[in-house]
Amino acid sequence: MAGITKAVLTTEEAAVYLGVAPSTLRTWRHRRVGPPSFRVGSKVVYRLTSLDAYLTECEMVDSRSNPDLDPRNIDTRPRRSRSGRRVLEAA
User: Fold this and answer.
1) CA-to-CA distance for 32 and 91, rounded, in angstroms?
2) Which residue from 9, 42, 81, 85 puts its CA 20 to 30 A from 20's CA?
């Protein structure tokens, strides 16, 4: 079966893939944060697609990767009406 890639990774393999320690993945799993995991028999595994989706999510909430979140692109000056009064922005 040449050419078959793994669909799931063990905790240790997933940690290497993400560049974190296995203990970090265990802590995240305990706190119910980080990439989703599940058990196959007695082994905890991570889908490769879930790890990629987690990395994409991390990238999108980082202001260095998402220009919409870059604080340099946000106008922080209070808006004023023509009369000079501050205008409250609707959230």
Assistant:
1) 30
2) 42
Who's near 84: CB < 8 A, 6+ residues apart? none
- Ramachandran bin of 3, using left for φ above 0, alpha for ψ from -120 to 50, beta for the remaining angles: left
20 vs 66: which has the higher pLDDT: 20
Residues 6 or more apart in contact with residue 11 via CB below 8 angstroms: 22, 25, 26, 37, 44, 45, 46
Relative to beta strand 38-40, strand 43-47 is antiparallel
Q: Which residue is it, tokens 């203990």?
A: 23
Collapsed DSSP state (helix, strand, coil) of residue 82: coil
